[in-house]
Every structure is written in structure tokens, then in C-alpha cells.
Design goal:
The protein is elongated and about 65 Å long. The protein has no helices and 13 strands. The strands form 3 sheets. Strands 3, 4, 6, 10, 12 and 13 form a 6-stranded antiparallel beta sheet that branches. Strands 5, 7, 8, 9 and 11 form a 5-stranded antiparallel beta sheet that branches. Helices cover 0% and strands 54% of the residues. By secondary structure, it is mainly β. The chain has a single domain, classed as Jelly Rolls (Sandwich), CATH 2.60.120.1340.
Length: 160
Amino acid sequence: MAITRLNNNSITSITALPSGVGGKIGNVSTVDLTSTYVTASSSLTSSGISVSITPSATTSKVLLILSCNMYINTDGYGFLAFYRGTTNLADSGYGHFQMNEPDNYYMNTVSHIDSPSSTSALTYNIYFAKTGTNNFYLNPSSQANNDGAEGSFVAMEILA
């Protein structure tokens, strides 16, 4: 869709951003979450949630967005981390996100920007862990029915 603007009493059309303007969106991959994912592990372990994307340039960044319900029982913390393959992209063993709201279901959105310097197909994974005696759940639908809400995991290429 072209943008029309007035310029010195004449109408011109803009069909693209000026050169050198970054931040355009390239490839986008989305995975819909329809199951509940649960861990009893105290160390980061794969949740089974993954998304693949192939950047079009080595200068591209990849914006990762996980949005889903999360739940931890009556004690402890829940943690999650974004991984590229088996490489933890977080600065710590606790990952990118920590949940400490026992016995409450919350819709959370967690994001991370990766700079993979690659044009090869990349697979991003969600790893999670918990502390305490209870399990940590990703994508439970409600307190009464843990059959999976409708969450999503998105990988979005940001062009340089």
C-alpha cells in the first residue's frame, strides 16, 4: 500500500521506506501451543516447544516471543529460557524469566532478541525448570482443566 503525501503542492506516493532505515520485518514463524507442558526438573530442560526460522541475512536479528499461561503450585519458582539449538541465550542458569506467584495462573509474554549471524535454518527452543516441591506448567488453560490454553511461540526476523 502506497502512502500519499503533499510535497510542494503536488501529490507523491511513497512505496517503500528510505534506504538505510532498518527495523523492517523479514521472515516470521509461529507455533500455536495447544497442550500443557510440565516440568518437575530443578535444572533447565527442554519443554518440547520449538520454532524454526531461516534469516535472510547475517545482519538480521531474531525477535523471540513466548506468550502463554504459566502456573506454579503452592511453593517454589518457575524459570524459562530461550535456546538456539542447545545453546542457552540467557546470561544465567535461571533463564530469561522467573515466576513466583504460587497457586495463580498468569498469561505471560516473554521476549528476547538474538543476533545469530546466520542464514542457515535455526531452531529455537523453550527450556524450563522449577524450585520447590511442585511442578511448573506452561500453557495450562485453567485451574479446573489443565488441557492447554491457546498460547504461541513466535520467531520474527528483524532486518538490519
